[in-house]
Amino acid sequence: MTVNEYVKEKKLLHPEKKRIVMCDARLHSLFRKKTINKSRIHNLLEDHFAENHEVSEDDNVRPDSEENLGTLNPCKRQRKTGAEKKSREKDDPFASIVVENLKLVYLGIGVLKEMLKEAETFEEKVTGCFVRVKSHPYDCRSESYQLVQVKG
């Protein structure tokens, strides 16, 4: 029986919002939510499908063998957070342009003023970093500031 069949059989669809599933005790233990969108069921169950798990040597060991007596096998399947899923999906060598990464390379005006005190090493430190530059007021851009990389 599929989850969709189970939902229909138990009449768990929301009375007004037909795309929302009201989770009973079984579904709540599976999804850890009171309500879920019907279209997200497959995505939420994706980690539980056998075809998505790698087979390792440990999976072929029988639990009742003499070697394994007295050892506890921890649960191998753990809930993955959204950040872990996204990092697994995107394996390119470039960093994404998000606030956390920009904070690592973005030089604020206070930091630049501190670096200007040491004029000899200023160019070495600033080249390659990102700074925020005010755009010309007559440009047709929606944003008044731009992040640009210092070339030298």
From TrEMBL:
User: Spans of biased composition, class Basic and acidic residues?
Assistant: 52-65, 81-90
Q: Which SUPFAM superfamilies match?
A: Plus3-like (SSF159042), SWIB/MDM2 domain (SSF47592)
> What are the coiled-coil residue ranges?
none
Q: Gene3D superfamilies, alphabetically?
A: Plus-3 domain, SWIB/MDM2 domain
Q: Which intervals hold domain DM2? A: 1-51
- Residue numbers spanned by region Disordered: 52-90
Which PROSITE patterns does this one have?
A: PLUS3, SWIB_MDM2
Q: Which Pfam families match?
A: Plus-3 (PF03126), SWIB (PF02201)
Q: Which residues form the signal peptide?
A: none
What name does the UniProt record give this protein?
Uncharacterized protein at5g08430
- Identify the InterPro entries for this entry: At5g08430-like, Plus-3_dom, Plus3-like_sf, SWIB_MDM2_dom_sf, SWIB_MDM2_domain
Any one GO MF term held by the record is: DNA binding
| Every Plus3 domain range | 96-152
